[in-house]
Amino acid sequence: QVSELTTNRLSVYLRCLNELDAAGVQTISSQALAEQFRLNAAQIRKDLAYFGEFGVRGVGYYVKDLRRHLRQILGLDRRLRVVIMGAGNLGLALADYPGFRQEGFEIAALFDIANEKIGHGSRGGVPIHDIRELKPLARRDRFDIAVIAVPAPHAQPVVDQVIAAGIKAILNFSPGALKVPAEVKLKSVDLTVSLESLSFYLAQGETG
Amino acid sequence: QVSELTTNRLSVYLRCLNELDAAGVQTISSQALAEQFRLNAAQIRKDLAYFGEFGVRGVGYYVKDLRRHLRQILGLDRRLRVVIMGAGNLGLALADYPGFRQEGFEIAALFDIANEKIGHGSRGGVPIHDIRELKPLARRDRFDIAVIAVPAPHAQPVVDQVIAAGIKAILNFSPGALKVPAEVKLKSVDLTVSLESLSFYLAQGETG
Ligand SMILES: NC(=O)c1ccc[n+]([C@@H]2O[C@H](COP(=O)([O-])OP(=O)(O)OC[C@H]3O[C@@H](n4cnc5c(N)ncnc54)[C@H](O)[C@@H]3O)[C@@H](O)[C@H]2O)c1
Ligand SMILES: NC(=O)c1ccc[n+]([C@@H]2O[C@H](COP(=O)([O-])OP(=O)(O)OC[C@H]3O[C@@H](n4cnc5c(N)ncnc54)[C@H](O)[C@@H]3O)[C@@H](O)[C@H]2O)c1
């Protein structure tokens, strides 16, 4: 079982390799990678060794090769289709963010229950469907990840609809604990908790 | 040095106590708290013991007391003023989110460089100022936390302006590594990395 701390590091390594590849660098050692991006060389070797043999003795890593392997490990070698539940303030901001598409995540659709939103779209043209259409649309097209951006009281029922539609990965923004079956991966982002951890440091007079 | 994992748990305990207080519960043991909210009783005792003597032998914790102590530890016993750099898609969605105010975070102002935005406000009435006014406004009013919601190439210069204005805690949404001096606490939320960790689980066929 690979921890989220590990997958977050893999994402960081991928960004570094994207930069090196764009700069035309062919090979790099774990030592040089660590120094250039302020990482830990031993941790890089340990993380990568878990997934296979990528380094070449005396050479280091081939940048293009390692980048392709990391994209495969993270599942980014295919186009991931994301749907957003809730076409409100947050849902619409996420829908129109060009950064997701650049990293291989396509925002396929928004879903809502408000009649005045259904049938319209975000400023960037992502369509807003009736959430009752989620299941038939999910059967027709493949949806890999669902983002939950509905008010807290609606979150659990909406998550149940997402799971019933066969979606196995959920990024949740609504506060409160959600229940999902074992085969579904749920990641919650609680922005208030992030603010509270900053407030803690201010209150304790601690430094970063 | 208290880790972010610990402060995140303190936030979770505070939410549990808010719920118990609202339900009129007077006292609770660490055991009952763990069972009711699916937490770990030993971890609760260890976390709280670090900050002081809160439990009473044979009784457990007084709910109102512990809630007040946790708010104090997290620095929520005073009103925290937050400013948002970048009145774009994300900045405006964050500015109008009522959940922050409910938890004690007041969104005081937005700052931007675009002339067509300066002098206006978010839908909820948060004013948009010229970022060149940040330093004089920060001297007049207290700003505790700055949120960074500007495009990546502008993030480091904007962070430098925030630090020059005397703000010591930063919640950053723009991708890429930012440099801050030791006395400033920086927390970055990278939504693409969150999506990549979900993609990893889908690719590995693992379960949560
Ligand atoms: N806006 C933010 O910056 C922010 C920050 C942190 C957390 N959140 C959380 O994100 C969620 C969304 O916040 P928001 O500010 O966008 O709220 P919002 O009220 O602007 O939007 C919510 C949308 O969800 C829709 N909706 C309600 N019930 C639904 C259902 N059963 N099925 C489908 N759609 C439904 C509504 O019609 C509305 O369009 C909330 O849970 C909030 O706590 C938002
Ligand atoms: N929108 C999202 O859902 C989302 C998701 C993840 C990450 N992000 C990150 O958040 C940031 C903002 O994203 P967005 O979608 O809101 O972008 P946006 O382009 O909609 O808004 C950016 C705003 O920043 C302002 N700005 C630019 N330079 C500035 C400067 N020097 N000082 C003050 N203001 C300045 C612009 O005028 C604009 O109003 C980006 O770094 C993006 O990568 C956004």
Description:
Two copies of one chain form a homodimer. Helix content of chain A is 46%, strand content 16%. Chain A has a six-stranded parallel sheet, with helices on both faces. A two-stranded antiparallel sheet of chain A has the order 1-2. Chain A has two domains: 4-73, Winged helix-like DNA-binding domain superfamily/Winged helix DNA-binding domain (Arc Repressor Mutant, subunit A, Orthogonal Bundle), CATH 1.10.10.10; 80-193, Rossmann fold (3-Layer(aba) Sandwich). In chain A, helix 8 links the parallel strand 6 (145-148) and strand 7. The mean pLDDT of chain A is 94. Chain A starts with a helix and ends with a helix. Chain A is built from nine helices and eight strands. Chain A has 208 residues and is of the alpha/beta class. Chain A is globular, with a radius of gyration of 20 Å. Chains A and B meet through helix 1, helix 5, strand 7, strand 8 and helix 9 of A and helix 1, helix 5, strand 7, strand 8 and helix 9 of B. Bound molecules: nicotinamide-adenine-dinucleotide (2 copies).
Lay out the secondary structure:
Two copies of one chain form a homodimer.
Chain A: H1 4-22, E1 27-28, H2 30-37, H3 41-51, E2 61-62, H4 63-73, E3 80-85, H5 89-95, H6 98-102, E4 105-112, E5 128-130, H7 134-140, E6 145-148, H8 152-164, E7 169-172, E8 185-188, H9 191-204
Parallel strand pairs in A: 3-4, 3-6, 4-5, 6-7, 7-8
Antiparallel strand pairs in A: 1-2
Helix pairs in contact in A: 1-4, 2-3
One nicotinamide-adenine-dinucleotide sits between chains A (85-91, 111-114, 117, 131, 149-152, 154, 158, 173-175, 191) and B (93-94, 97, 99).
